[in-house]
TrEMBL record:
Residues 152-256 form the FAD/NAD(P)-binding domain. The keyword Flavoprotein applies. This is Sulfide:quinone oxidoreductase. SUPFAM superfamilies: (Phosphotyrosine protein) phosphatases II, FAD/NAD(P)-binding domain. Its cofactor is FAD. Residues 7-112 form the Beta-lactamase hydrolase-like protein phosphatase-like domain. GO terms for molecular function: FAD binding; hydrolase activity; quinone binding; sulfide:quinone oxidoreductase activity. It comes from the Bacteria. The keyword Transmembrane does not apply. One of its GO terms (biological process) is sulfide oxidation, using sulfide:quinone oxidoreductase.
Amino acid sequence: MTLDSKRISARLSVSAQIAPEDVAKLKAQGYRAIICNRPDGEGADQPSFAEIDAAARENGLEARYIPVVGGRVSDEDAALFAAALEELPGPICAYCRSGTRSATLWSLSQATKLPTADILAATQKAGYDMSGVVRRIANGGKTPTDSADASHDVVIVGGGAAGIAAAASLKSRKPDLDIALIDPADVHYYQPGWTMVGGGIFEPQQTARTMASLIPKGVNWIKAAVAAFEPRENAVVLEGCRIVKYGRLIVCPGLKLDWGRIDGLIETLGQNGVTSNYRYDLAPYTWELVSGLRQGRAIFTQPPMPIKCAGAPQKAMYLSCDAWLRRGVLKDIDVNFNNAGGVLFGVKEYVPALMDYVRKYDAQLNFFHNLIAVDGKAKKAVFEVREPEKEVRQVEMEFDMMHVCPPQSAPDFIRVSPLADAAGWVDVDQATLRHKTYDNIWSLGDVMNAPNAKTAAAARIQAPIVAENVIADIAGGSAVAQYNGYGSCPLTVERGKIVLAEFGYGGKMLPSFPKAFIDGTKPSRAAWFLKERLLPPIYWRAMLRGHEWMAKPSPAEKPGT
């Protein structure tokens, strides 16, 4: 047999059955202790624990016997394993027939120490699926004694723009539908407004309302965090191991802003000239910095895709430059846009108008520059440069102000769930937004993997589509509406003018207005009026209330058409 230990944590690795001769190899690899989780006599060719123990003593390793019958990991077994992890010298190699029992014991032993998603991620990375014990992990490693705490016709995970809009669209179609919405937050934010806060146009309080004031009447609000999904059981597991059952599930918790992936960023955000419009509390600091800067270098960053509202990093640059130009100080400010990607904007028709403003503001475009570290006190940033057909290198840049767009990913509890694709996003059919594996699950908003722009405008169009298809499914029918990938990015190129980018799958332009009214490829005051005056009330009073202004679903194509 071949020794193949798999690292679970810094202290523990797990392995399939080992032989006495493997013990010397484990010692050479730095292990100091062994745990056997396989009962003697389980297999005909299996060495006994006494043989492993003798080899361990001969090599100066400690060994402990915690036998577990396959498929019967008890709470007591997990407690014994936790004690062994504390008492034995590390690193430790635990083994059973395949390593699964050892991985399960570790998962249960860490349930009170690590978030459920972190446990699932560690075991998943090592090649072990812990979905069968996820309820026990969420229950602090103990076997739950109850079943479902609640059951609803439709359960929606996420109370952001997508979740509340989907709930409202469902209620407008079927008022008696039993819907529960799961979200732990007290406050709901109009995130598209944060660019305007950072530009000194909106006040931050204009972008926030209480969650309770927005959840549609008749929708049950479960104020809790989701730990995991059990799609085969039609169940959502909440932190604390409460179980919510569903007939249909809609998944839309948004995405994760991964500030920690940039070394030193968290420690300096909101001070030392480092800001971001991607956070409610930081957007006002952006305007404070813009208002106070008179000379020096200003850097605006964009990480690798996907990110929500791909135009937002450059929107911050344009509005800042416009403010400096109006104050007569732009000539003394060195503006740099450092983009991890290779193009200014992904839909080529909008690039000429944007480049006009890049030239107007004399901004330096640095493509393939990805922010990897920040020293706020020293006012220095480090970028990894990955230009095609060139050696990867790092460059250091000093700054007086830096606006950071953080790396983004699916939330941890989504990424490690059975709902996710290989990249961690909810795996859906891009037309119907139905899950590819579980036919009573749908997803919309930033968390799903359809190749569309992750914007609030996209969620506004997606919500009625999901609602139509869920209602059709409840009635026993097939999908009746389809999504064309619509997304919109109002690019605020100066105070009073916007380039209104509207497009769908494949970069196809999908304008909402006649060209005579708004030509999206050119900056216009009409588009600014839409962004500043019309879109906020449309968001609060229409989209989140089930009034689908300019968002009526397109009918699904019938087979053969």
